[in-house]
Amino acid sequence: MTRTRDRFITATNELFRRYGYNGTSLKQVTEAAAAPVGSLYHFFPGGKTELTEAVIEETGAAYLELFELIADSVADPAQTVEAFFSAAADTLEQTGYIDVCPIGTVAREIANTDDRLRSAASKVFASWAQALAARLCAAGLDQQQAARLATTVICTLEGSFVVGRTSRDADAVRHAGTHLGDLVGACLTSGSQPSRVNRS
Amino acid sequence: MTRTRDRFITATNELFRRYGYNGTSLKQVTEAAAAPVGSLYHFFPGGKTELTEAVIEETGAAYLELFELIADSVADPAQTVEAFFSAAADTLEQTGYIDVCPIGTVAREIANTDDRLRSAASKVFASWAQALAARLCAAGLDQQQAARLATTVICTLEGSFVVGRTSRDADAVRHAGTHLGDLVGACLTSGSQPSRVNRS
DNA sequence: ACTCTAATAGAACGAACGTTCTAGACTCAA
DNA sequence: TTGAGTCTAGAACGTTCGTTCTATTAGAGT
User: Which residues of chain B fall short of a pLDDT of 70?
Assistant: First the structure.
C-alpha cells in the first residue's frame, strides 16, 4: 500500500477530474483513499484547501516533467506541442472522457473565492508556459514572442480539454494540437520575415 | 422590473461565472433574482438542472448572436476571431475577472454526472464552431478544414478564459486572439499551396 | 363580480457538507 | 517497559444543500 498522503493526493486528483472541486466531497476522498478523515486532517491540517493546493502543485509538477520528457524525445517545439496534445487526447479516450487536467476545472471554480488556490493554479500555468517558452527561445524566438506563444498553447490545451470532454471527441484535442503545432512552426520559421504575430 | 424567469436566468448566469455550478446555491440564485424559491420551481419544475439547461442554451444563443454581429462588422474571419477574443478580454477586465463564459465552467463540472447538461453544452460549442466554420467556408476553406479550424478556435477561446481569469491577465486572451487570427489567416491564404494544416 | 390559472411566498424536509473532537493503535528511541 | 510522537479511526457538530409542500396573492377572461 502506498503512503497515505500520496493516496489522498491521487484520489483527490482523480475525483477532481471527474467532479471538480465543489463536486468532490471529503467523504468521497477518504473512501477512495481508503483512509479515515482523521488522517486527512493529520496530513492536511488546512482541510480541503490545503489538500487541493497540494494536488494542484503535484499535478503541475508531474505534467511539467511529462512535457520535458516529450520535448527531449522529439526534434522541435512544433512536434513537442503536437505530441503533447496527442498524448492528452489518448488519455481522454482511455479514461472514458474524464478530464485530463484537474487544475483547469478547479481553477475556474475557485478563481473568485480562494485567492491562495487561484495563485497556485496560476503559478502552475506559468511554469508550463515558461517551460515551453524556453524551448521556443532555444529554437530562435525572442523572449516576448516565446512567452506569448507558449501561453497561447497552454490556453488551447486547457480549452481543448473542455471542448473535447464535453463533446466526447478526443479528435478535437488532436486537431487543436496539429493547428497549434503548425502555428508554432510558422512562428519559428518566420523569424527573418516577420509576420503579424511577431510584430504584435 | 424584468420578468421573473429572465431574472433567474441572468442571476444564475452571473453566479455560475463567479462560483461555477456546484458553487452556486439556489438560495444565492433566489436572492440575486429577488424571487422566492417557489417561483423558481414554478418556472423550472426540473429544479437546478432545468435552470442550468436554460442558462446554457440562452447564453449560447446570445454569444452566437454576438459572434454574427462581429463577423458582419469586419472584413474577414481572421479579423472576426481577433475581435471576438478582444471583446472577451475587455469583458474579463471590466467584470473584475469574473469568467466570460458560464458554459465552460459548468461543462467541466457536470460532464461526468449529468448527460443532459453535457449534451446541451456540447451543442452550444458545436453551434459556435458551426457559425465560424460557415464564415471560413465562405472565405474559401473546404468543409472539413473549416470545421476543424473553427473547433480549435473555440478550444483556444475557452482555454484563454481559464488561463486569463486564473492569472488575472486579460492580455493572455488578447494574444491568443492575435495568434489564432494569424492561424486563420494563414489557413485561408494557403489554399493554393497546401500546408501541413490543410493536409491533416 | 366571479372564477381560474399563474405566480408569489417561505416554512419544513432529510441528506450531505466540511470540520472538530476524543480515543485508540502503532513505532521506535531511551 | 515505558513514553512520546505519529497515524488511524469514526462519531458528532452545526450548517447548508436541493427539493417539497401548503397557503396566499395577482391578474386576465367571461
Answer: 1, 191-200
